[in-house]
Amino acid sequence: MTKEEIENGTADMEIDQRELMNGERSELNAVPDGFNANYLKVYYGKLFPHADIFKWMSYGNDGKHPGCDESYFGRREFSFTLDNDIYLRFQSFNSVSQLENSIKEKCPFKIDIGPVYSVDPAKRHAYAQSGNNVFTPVEKELVFDIDMTDYDDVRYCCSGADVCLKCWTLMTIAIKVIDPALRDDFGFNHILWVYSGRRGVHCWVCDPKARRLTNEQRSSIAEYFRVYKGNENSQKKVSLTSSALHPFLLRSYKVLEEFFEGNLLSNQSLFSTEERYEKILEMIPDESITSELRGKWQDNKKSSISKENINVDRWKHVKKILKSGKQKGQGLGKCVEEIVFSFSYPRLDMEVSKHMNHLLKAPFCIHPKTGRVCVPIDPNHCEEFDPTAVPTLSKLLEEINMGGLGTDDDAEWDRTSLGKSIRFFRSSFLQPLLKSCKEEIENSYNAKLQHSKTSLTW
Amino acid sequence: MEIIRSQRKPVHIDVVPTLPLYRSAPPLEVRLEDFELYAMDRLRVLKGIADGLSRGKKSEEMKNLADHLWKANMRHLDASEVVNKDIISHFVLRLVYCRTEDLRKWFLSMETNLFRYRLLFEKAEVQRALMAEFDLPYRAASNAELESVKEGLKQVAQSFGQPLAADAIFYKVPFEEVPELVAGRRVFIHKGYAYIAMNQVVSLVSTQFRSHLSKALILTNRKWTSTIREQEKDRLTPIVEALCSSYLGPDYSQPREFAEISIKDIDQIAKSSFPLCMRHLFEKLREDHHLKHGGRMQLGLFLKGVGLKLEDALAFWKAEFSQRVGSERFDKEYAYSIRHNYGREGKRTIITSAPGVGDHHGCPYRHFSEENLRAALGKMGISNRAVEDVMDKVRNRHYQLACTLTFEAVHGTSCDAGINHPNQYFSDSQKVLQSKNQSTV
Predict the structure, then answer these.
(1) Nearest Cα residue to B118 out of B52, B46, B66
(2) Which Pfam family is an annotated match for this chain, by its short name (chain A) (predicted)?
(3) What is the pTM of this model?
(4) What is the rounded distance in angstroms from the CA atom of residue A250 to the CA atom of residue A246?
(5) A428 contact B CB<8A
(6) The Cα angle at residue A113 between residues A112 and A115, in degrees rounded to 5
């Protein structure tokens, strides 16, 4: 769309007329829900933050300092998924305009970000012929992917692709457990949490140390975070030793307990039916205890306790009996904790984190099934994040329409709901990251200079 | 290393303040006799460790066992030669154990265990020096640093079920250098640094030792097959090839005075102190008045080892055999080999020589069917539970352990050293019985 068309208002009418349903003429600005190439064209034309993504991926190598690595951005792999599921790998670009033009031209339904390779991915075949395997990943952010479908056995409000505020708590918990550990335990600082667009979250750890981790090291971090080990077949999927917990688990437990008791118990009605409480009883390896509880609850079916209280009460029974130490059965030591962990502890996709060459969806993409933007999440206020209120593609286009005429082309995003997200991305993540990168480039440049100076002494 | 036959020339090697790492064969001269003897001494240590591990000894016990074995076998009259013996014996055994995958695996495992136990006994300075050798330049955390993370360190220690020692040393290391410890949540991590306990450092150093040795063994094997074996076929190769199967226990071929027995005692003693293999042979001999060659040899040597004098042996065998073949034939065909038995012999063959039809020698734990073995054990008067334990060892092919358990069940005492030889069974048995007699007097 040209500036002329906008000023004439003809561009807006084009959209409206193309998407009219049943011949009805809706409000001038209204844009029906949907996800398609036309919408995307507008999005990539006016809203998608190409320059921010470029600055991020350059990690300070913008050519303004003699210590910059001019080849850095060009060695990064991107991949595009086009309409009709055509998948283009090993896309690389040498400048922000190349990146922007390619996206606008190809209009990908999904953009993935891969590693930085030893050489420009476009030239990989030339190097492979030398036989020395010179084409290899050298840097990649440490990433985590947490998906709600991995929790299907412990959420009753939704299943499969659906997500609601009740089960979204599980994602809140995941962020509140993993984020502090990344900062306090591992010492990472430049961390970006992103809504995956439908039913999960992604985490990008961008410190230089993180980007240079080997597969083995990434694996060890993922294992450090792993507690849940199971599939549909194994009964006891969380197994904690009966002696004390590692400090990371202790710290996490405080978060888990708070949300389990204050939120999940009631929102998921974990004890309200026999089928549901049997699931929990299965986790208690002591027949006498489980039959005592079962007996108690079967009697209570007829009592007048309100539905909310039933879950809280029954959990109280469970805790009391397990902590009383009456029956010194085997494996009861950490049973309460195991139950809480089972229902709430984060479940990471291990494969995503372990491999340097894994490609992960770029932030600010639009999810094809929901039309929602993959916006950043503030870990410090993640309890307030509402996945059902995330701006959709159609809503953003409406907001553009309402924007009116004679406005500055460059900052159209600022007048939409996307503005908040982009501003947050810049202030809390991008700017501190770039500042630190520039410092690193300067320092290592000066160090090299120093080194060569001293080695030249006669 | 140069192997020489002549008088040993004194060689000075810098006193190494740390455990040797066996990085490369040192320029030492070794006498041919020492080549074999040093290796056998070290092999006793390694086999002792293997034995301890298969008996399920815990790490503290193993540490002490290894120390005991080392001191018992690896001493040298000349103090300055102790280190040389250590190094030379290791390199000789590399030649012996590089030759097949199984041998390499066993040697790698035992040498790494030995290294680890020795390292645990060393002072902190030595341990630190070794860390530096392996490019693991870990820095000890200062007291101030430890104070700030004390709570976390305590919790980690508790998660292993161990209390935190007040003066415990911790090393501060970037977390990415210890991925296994991080993955297993076996360390406290703070702001990108892992705090490693001393025994974990030992573990890390040992892992490095193991990986170096593993690579070295492959190279040694290549050199062995391509050059050394052929070059040394008249000198070192026969020694090397014999070393891993040689018997290392006490020499029972020279009977000792206190173990003398006479023919009139023999039935009684067979019931109380013979191991199952010998009991079986003895009973068969009494029954059939005959034994085939393998059985004659094993029982004959055993009896010699328990102190049966040559004249008594001849009388004993003659008494039995002449009932079947007549005394002239005995004198003509069998007496010679009995006299021959009283020459020098040191190879262990019981477990490996499989009995054929009509044979009764060999190890019953290995060759008897389950039924027959159970029956035989029952006849020795062992409880059902003990029989089950023995059968369990047999199923796992630990025949000597099975014999050891039998010993323990029959005598009601434990046998820490394990049974390695029928004569050892006998002499240990006699010791136990004698001490029992003494205590009841």
Answers:
(1) B66
(2) DNA_primase_S
(3) 0.68
(4) 6
(5) no
(6) 140
CB A346 within 8 A of CB A178: yes
Tally of CB atoms within 10 A around A89:
13
Neighboring chain B residues of A245 at a CB cutoff of 8 Å: 155, 159
Residues 6+ apart with CB under 8 A from A458: none
CA B174-B177-B182 angle, 5° bins: 85
Using CA coordinates, name the residue in chain A closest to B162. A243
> Residue B258, CB half-sphere, CA atoms under 13 Å: how many?
6
The Cα–Cα gap between A452 and B360 comes to 82
Q: Name the binding residues of B for [4Fe-4S] cluster.
A: 277, 363, 403
Asked whether the beta carbons of B1 and B30 are under 8 A apart, the reply is: yes
Q: How many CA atoms lie within 13 A of B289 on its CB side?
A: 11
Whether the pLDDT of residue A226 is over 50: the answer is yes
* Joined tokens for residue B33: 């006799």
Q: What whole-number distance in Å separates Cα of residue A31 and Cα of residue B118?
A: 77
Q: How far is CA B85 from the centre of its chain?
A: 19
Q: What are phi and psi of B198, to 5 degrees?
A: -55, -45
Q: What is the pLDDT of residues A309-355, one digit of tens each?
A: 889 989 998 998 888 765 555 557 788 999 999 999 999 999 999 99
| Cβ contact B158–A244 (<8 Å) | yes
Residue carrying the six token digits 């935190």 = B164
Q: Which segments in chain B show pLDDT lower than 50?
A: 5-16, 254-258, 344-348, 441
What residue has token string 């690389």? A92
Cβ–Cβ below 8 Å for A248 and B184: no
- Distance (Å, whole) CA A161 – CA A165: 14
Using CA atoms, how far residue B298 sits from B163, B265, B293, B341, B349, in Å, is 54, 20, 9, 10, 8
Q: Do B158 and A243 touch (CB under 8 A)?
A: yes
A333 touches chain B (CB under 8 A): no
Quote the tokens at residue B223: 């050199």
